[in-house]
Amino acid sequence: QVQLVESGGGLVPAGGSLMLSCLISGRTSSIWPMGWFRQAPGKEREFVAVIHRSGGVPYYADSVKGRFTISRDNAKNTVSLQMNSLKHEDTAVYYCTADRSLFISSTYYSAHEYEYWGQGTQVTVSS
User: Nearest CA to 96 among 54, 50, 65, 60?
Assistant: First the structure.
């Protein structure tokens, strides 16, 4: 089994920065794609970013491209999301996710592609 625990959420003013971290435990050697989704009140869960555990080019949602950076530390079994130039519309619960697929799927933006999920961490950006 695999467990994911997010940390780092909070309240930040618009234009500010925040870093989220996700600790992955359990059978971490079976995990390859790792990423983040978010869900705002009354909205569906949406893709934010994904990275492969072996490296390579990460993928981002257009809405966060140029502002957010995803990274991974295999030695620490963590995946992080550095969020800069935050906007009010970034307010959401952010979920860490991972999957046992060997490769990042062509439909990486779909929540159905990921098997493991964290409990989520709230990010609130004040306008």
Answer: 50
